[in-house]
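Aim 2 progress update. The chain analyzed this quarter is reproduced below.
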Amino acid sequence: MATTNTEVYRRFEGTLRRHPFRFVPLTLSAIRTLTKRKLPLILLYLPPVITTIVMCSMVYLKFSLSALSGGSDGQGAMGMQMAQQLLETRGLIEQFVYTMGVFVLLIIAWFGSGLIAEDRRHKAHLMYFARPLTKFDYFLGKFGVTLFFGMLVTLVPFLLICLMASIASPDWAFAKEETDVFGACVIFGLMWTVVLSLLVLAASSLVKKRNHALLGIFGAGMSLLVISEIAQDVTRDARFTLISPLDNLVLFSEWIFEKDRPPLEGDPAYALVALAAMSLAAFAVIMSRLRRMEVQG
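Predicted structure tokens:
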């Protein structure tokens, strides 16, 4: 005879396993939600894709035309021509990195501006904090989203063009002679993405609407850039570059990409300290706002 269990409630007698990466489901769910809308993805990522294809083609043609025109030259002339080609390719990659930095700012601002603001608006953070999720886990979940969308425009295109330069150059000369470019691309991509992600999330945590966060991000960025330029013109002091995070990122990128480390207008060490201070301040703002959100709801 079949038996039916009529108990409504049973006490849980097992033990809950604490997952070391509790923020991962939050990151993945946010990425799935944001990628459902195809139009923003197309509009934001199509220009970087086209730029990457054009730059890869330029690098390939540069080495191909050099190989065709250098067949009748002497060994010494070919060596000098190859050195010149490597130097020009390095310059192209550096300019490409600056160009992609603009797209990174637009993409991170678009996808990151509503991550915390919309949760505050719809009270969704109350559901997250009701689960075994700490404020730092919540931060990592949102931070992982901006890193994901940002890295698609930094590391992937940078490494693709470096790989194309290595393949197109004779006997993988670019990979052998310009190895530091690969590391510079990775460092710059991580630095640019992390700093912008923290600043965007800080702006998102201060407001309840995504549009307000977008206005605050671009308004503050442009204001600091203009103030920095005016202060430098008036005082002739390059240290006012430290006011603008964008100027600091450009100065730092010039330092890591320049092979011979020539003197620059401004100390890259100060720029790095300024970026670290801005990042820590943004992180402090985020955690302070999350603490208030957890208490006040």
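The chain has twelve helices and no strands. Residues 29 and 77 are 57 Å apart (CA to CA). These observations will guide the mutagenesis experiments scheduled for the next reporting period.
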